[in-house]
Design brief:
Layout: E1 6-7, H1 18-25, H2 38-51, E2 55-59, H3 62-73, E3 79-83, H4 87-90, H5 95-98, E4 103-107, H6 116-120, E5 133-139, H7 152-164, E6 169-172, H8 176-183, H9 187-191, E7 196-200, E8 211-215, H10 217-229, H11 238-250, H12 255-270, E9 286-290, H13 298-306, E10 310-311, E11 313-316, E12 319-323, H14 330-349
Helix pairs in contact: 1-11, 2-11, 3-10, 12-14
Length: about 350
């Protein structure tokens, strides 16, 4: 996609910086399946250090990282509790069933934020003829709830209560650095109670490829076998890790800019007749608005925006999602709002 587009579809569309490209071109590499890629090893050691964990492992995608964790935490025939809009339930190709033989018990939660009282009533009783609960999975920030952030106290309460029942808790932390920026706390403090954490290098942090899975040394050792089974043994992957190192070292420091742009975008959307948005949900870099009041569907509006050089995504026929990132400026957001206002006014005058 050309750089001339204002691309608000996702923060996955970020382009590697010149510094990343230079680092990738000159990366020191080896065979990672043998554990001999020095750049991969540096990236994994840095991730473990930042999260206060014993070990970390590089994976090609967040989906692979999540599914490896699910496989290790569960056994076939169990249930996984997660929020009903959760990524592992809706956007990972039913791999919970395909690969781990588990099903999901989805739970609706206000703003996508689960808390223990909602979970406790859904945990299976110890009866032999019902599927037993094997795992609780949280998502922070919560993508389809609009980038909302679960407070630390709520996450730690869930983990403490679950651990008393010998239930592991996994965090889909694809955008956990966005949550950290919002909370003003380091990721190690935010995630310390979880049994495993996946986070992405390729979203707001700006790397072109890759995610990380962190946990205990034993957990990550087992995870390497599962990664290999999924085709994730990538040989001279240090070329990718070189960009990941820069993303991890420098990416978190600028996320507040994306959050400020998202807030500006949300407030502008709220001022357009026919568009509804709950500003309380706009906490990080994701903005979801309801356009049904404009008389047009989300698909129609997204198509009209595209003719103006703006790319956005639909959630459903009523909602559009905009995601700010390092390749979207405040001026870009203002231009998008101007175009969207014109689109809605044209419809209103027909």
């Amino acid at each position: 996609m050309s750089n001339s587009w204002i691309d608000l579809r996702s923060d996955t569309v970020t382009l590697p910086s010149d510094e990343m490209r230079r680092a990738m071109a000159s990366a020191e590499v080896g065979d990672d399946v043998y554990g001999e890629d020095p750049t991969i090893n540096r990236l994994e050691a840095l991730a473990a250090e930042i999260f206060g964990r014993e070990a970390a492992m590089f994976v090609p995608s967040g989906t692979m990282g999540n599914q490896i964790a699910v496989k290790l935490h569960t056994r076939p025939g169990q249930e996984i509790l997660c929020e009903e809009r959760g990524h592992i339930f809706n956007y990972e190709m039913a791999m919970l069933g395909w690969f781990s033989g588990c099903i999901v018990r989805p739970i609706p939660a206000p703003l996508g934020i689960l808390f223990w009282d909602l979970l406790a009533s859904r945990i299976a009783p110890p009866t032999y003829y019902v599927a037993q609960t094997g795992l609780i999975a949280l998502e922070n920030t919560h993508n389809m709830a609009g980038g909302t952030v679960t407070p630390i106290a709520i996450m730690e309460d869930i983990c403490a209560q679950a651990h008393q029942l010998n239930l592991p808790v996994h965090l889909d932390g694809a955008r956990i650095f966005n949550a950290a920026a919002y909370l003003g706390k380091p990721v190690a403090e935010i995630t310390r109670a979880f049994d495993s954490v996946m986070f992405c290098l390729s979203k707001g942090l700006g790397a072109p490829v890759g995610s990380m899975l962190v946990g205990s040394a034993d957990f990550i050792q087992q995870a390497r076998s599962v990664r290999k089974a999924l085709g994730g043994g990538m040989r001279q992957a240090g070329i990718l890790a070189a960009a990941g190192l820069i993303a991890l070292e420098h990416g978190p420091t600028r996320l507040h800019e994306d959050h400020a742009n998202a807030r500006m975008l949300a407030e502008g959307l709220a001022a357009i007749p026919g568009i509804q948005i709950d500003l309380d949900t706009v906490q990080t870099n994701i903005v979801i608005c309801d356009v049904s009041g404009t008389g047009r569907s989300s698909t129609e509006i997204v198509a009209a925006l595209k003719t103006q050089g703006v790319l956005a995504g639909t959630v459903n026929p009523q909602q559009i999602r905009f995601v700010t990132h390092l390749n979207v400026s405040r001026a870009d957001c203002a231009q998008m709002l101007q175009g969207l206002r014109a689109i809605c006014e044209t419809r209103a005058s027909v």
